[in-house]
């Protein structure tokens, strides 16, 4: 009976180890590395100090997935930034108003004119468009040049 129990336990542990190893990414092509302050690229620290000068980086992570590199940065002001492999910001998620300096000028002008009582809390650059989210839950889409496309109410 003890042999059956040991075999069962060992089989369970082996299966659990296999499941855990495979569950992080089905194709095995994802790799996340926590960065130290010294490992964070200068372009990213410069961006943070320029646009979020009262904030500090609390967590930095480099992710490689299918040969695509991104940097995920968390600031102490509850702001998350994502940078591509060229150290260009592609996403900014916040809980309060983002600095005007991080919003493309035409988008900022559109929001200020058409939503004067609201602020931008999130900005994202997609392949074919840009999107901002306002503090009222509205999502506005713009083309890559900053021309308004459509409104999406959450």
UniProtKB/TrEMBL annotation:
One Pfam family named in its UniProt record: PepSY_like
Origin species: Formosa sediminum
Annotated SUPFAM superfamilies: BT0923-like (SSF160574)
Limits of the Putative beta-lactamase-inhibitor-like PepSY-like domain: 70-149
Name used for this protein in its record: Putative beta-lactamase-inhibitor-like PepSY-like domain-containing protein
Swiss-Prot/TrEMBL keywords: Signal
Signal peptide bounds: 1-23
InterPro entries: PepSY-like (IPR021533)
Segments crossing the lipid bilayer: none
């Amino acid at each position: 009976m003890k042999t059956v129990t040991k075999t069962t336990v060992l089989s369970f542990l082996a299966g659990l180890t296999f499941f855990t190893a495979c569950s992080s990414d089905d194709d095995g092509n994802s790799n996340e590395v926590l960065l130290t302050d010294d490992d964070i690229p200068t372009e990213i620290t410069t961006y943070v100090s320029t646009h979020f000068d009262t904030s500090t980086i609390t967590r930095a992570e480099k992710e490689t997935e299918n040969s695509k590199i991104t940097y995920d940065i968390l600031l102490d002001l509850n702001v998350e930034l994502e940078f591509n492999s060229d150290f260009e910001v592609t996403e900014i998620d916040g809980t309060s108003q983002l600095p005007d300096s991080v919003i493309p000028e035409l988008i900022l002008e559109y929001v200020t004119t058409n939503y004067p009582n609201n602020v931008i809390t999130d900005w994202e650059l997609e392949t074919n468009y840009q999107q901002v989210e306002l503090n009222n839950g509205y999502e506005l889409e713009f083309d890559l040049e900053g021309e308004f496309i459509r409104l999406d109410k959450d």
